[in-house]
Amino acid sequence: MKSSHSRRQFLAYSLASQTAGAAAKYDLLIRGGRVVDPSQGLSTERDVAISGRRIALLAERIPESEARQVVDARGKIVTPGLIDIHVHVYDGVAPLGIPADPNCIAKGVTTAIDAGSAGAHTFPGLRKFIINLADTRIYALLNISVVGQSTLSTDNPWGELLELRYANPKLAIRTIEQNRDVILGVKIRLTRNIAGDHDLKALGLAREAADAVRLPLMVHIGGSYSPLPAILAMMKKGDIITHSFRGGDGGILDAKGRVLPEVRAAIARGVHMDIGHGAGSFSFDTAEKTLRQGVLPGTISSDVHQFNVNGPVFDLATTLSKFLHLGLTLEQVIERATTNAANAFGFAGGLGSLKPGAEADAAVFDLQEGNFEFTDSLGAKRTGHQKLAPLATVKGGKIYGSASIPVVTL
User: Fold this and answer.
1) Greatest Cα-to-Cα distance within the chain, rounded to the nearest angstrom
2) What are the residue ranges spanned by the domains of the chain?
3) Residue in 23, 31, 18, 93 with CA at minimum distance from that of residue 403
4) CATH code for residues 4-80+356-367+386-409
């Protein structure tokens, strides 16, 4: 089900398709861009043809006359629709929630995972009012606390696990089983805002739920009572550590700035390291030290929410741009927001890829050159020389909103 706002946004595309030449071979052609698709090892100029909801063809030159609509992407970057595995979009219920569409699909993110805004008691609303209505494809990680993040704000800084009895594996399991099509795992925030020193007990309850439903567990680290090695010891292949490049205590570096051996061991056994930039969980200093030691994040996510959407995060494209400054290639940053993100959650339908037959999700960016000031979560600044600026988004074969580049209806 889509809102009337959504229907209006897609109406122009629908009418154009109905009135265009019936003999057109493709519904949409993204022409002349540099296609960066790590799932195929592609980073070269290609045309992308779309039929219905699927990618139909990638080729060096596809005649414009074969398409009903043409997006002129010459001189631009074309990627699979980005996947942001850590956002907070339970707008109106979780105080940190923001509207999904202006901050996700409008910025090149066709698929986003709300990471723990909702728990078992509040998830029905997330599904009814956000997942079912947004143009962005929204999935969720269920908070082990039944109240989700409905209790946490700047005016009421008491987290969802201050009362440990809210961590209810039985309710979490039941909610997940009833919503397996959209719930992809379990989320827990391990901070000092947990009842006493019971963070490992809370983690054990989250572990119980994740194991019962055979889904990944995402763990928010930083500032916990227990040290990170004790937390990592409870994590399994396929689980995710988010905020992995945070500064301060509880992070992946020891007191001398070296990557903890337990972190390397966790990565070796299949635990994913996710960025989850957020308002307090990304440090340039940590990133620089970690990358120099040969440890790269598995996924790059924004953790965009009410308290960072106006800076320092802004959106996923800005977070990816920070990693261009840190020395990752364009192909490496796109891989961590498409291929790797899709693999972490086993998405069906070919999300995160532009292979023929995959879901027709794509994003067009301008890779701007110049001097750009980037700020981390601690206020440290760096000057980068490349920045990804979103121009157009295609989801399920349809252009979202008003693209910032020419779209021609033939």
Assistant:
1) 68
2) 4-80+356-367+386-409, 82-345
3) 31
4) 2.30.40.10
pLDDT in tens, 370-407: 999 999 999 999 999 999 999 999 999 999 987 788 78
> Measuring CA to CA, how many Å separate 329 from each of 35, 251, 297?
14, 25, 13
Number of other CB atoms surrounding residue 25 within 10 Å: 15
Give pLDDT, residue 22.
53
Q: For tokens 């929410």, what's the residue?
A: 305
What is the 3-class SS of 277-294, one letter each residue?
CCCCCCCHHHHHHHHHCC
Say which CATH architecture domain 82-345 belongs to.
Answer: Alpha-Beta Barrel (3.20)
For 242-256, give the DSSP string.
ESTT--STTSSB-TT
| Distance in angstroms (rounded) separating the CA atoms of residues 300 and 35 | 20
What's the pLDDT tens digit per position in 250-290?
Answer: 999 999 999 999 999 999 999 999 999 999 999 999 999 99
Q: What gap in Å lies between CA 364 and CA 367, rounded to an integer?
A: 10
Residue 50, amino acid: I
Type of residue at 109: V
Q: CA-to-CA distance for 186 and 173, rounded, in angstroms?
A: 9
Rounded to two decimals, the pTM is 0.94
Fold match between domain 4-80+356-367+386-409 and domain 82-345: no
